[in-house]
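Notebook, bench 3.
Goal today: get a predicted structure for Calcium/calmodulin-dependent 3',5'-cyclic nucleotide phosphodiesterase 1A from Tetrabaena socialis so we can plan the truncation constructs. The sequence was checked against the plasmid map this morning, with no discrepancies at the termini. Length recorded as 173 residues. Pasting the sequence as submitted so the record is complete.
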Amino acid sequence: VIELVLATDMKQHFSIISHFNTVHRLASYSQQQLQQHAARGAKLKATRGMLRRTAAATVSDELHTLHDPSLAGAPPRPVDDAERLLTLQVALKAADIGHLGEALEVHKRWLSVLEEEFFSQGDRERQLGLPISPLFDRAKQGVSKSQVGFYDFVALPLLHALSSAFPGTGPLM
């Protein structure tokens, strides 16, 4: 649970998205390679009519293990718990900034509450003599003035990555 909450911290944003993109490029490449391997195996099986039935059945079983045609077009499945966690982190990040896709008045309300939360934290950091986090200083520009950059460089790449890996999330784009 902690790994999910920490994923919403912008300090980790670009490394998480980069990792997610890398994992899904490799997964996509791997799936393509498995499909090519299955096609080559099918051709090999067809040209080796002299193989005994048991050998042919073994090749067929191995091909079905490598590629299940019923999964064609299905969203990718995590290969392990690390990939599952990474996918959940990206999904939570998308939910965390979901107000960007709402009606303008709803987005403005969320932005106002968010900016006040940030300024309150900046006030506390100032009281404790700590460096004030970026966008948390009331004396400077807050998050409301940085939305175009945030949208272009953070939100769109995040949603593009998510919808590329999971086409069912396309409406978020």
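Helices lie at 2-6, 13-47, 53-66, 81-96, 104-127, 147-165. The longest helix spans residues 13-47.
Flagging this for group meeting.
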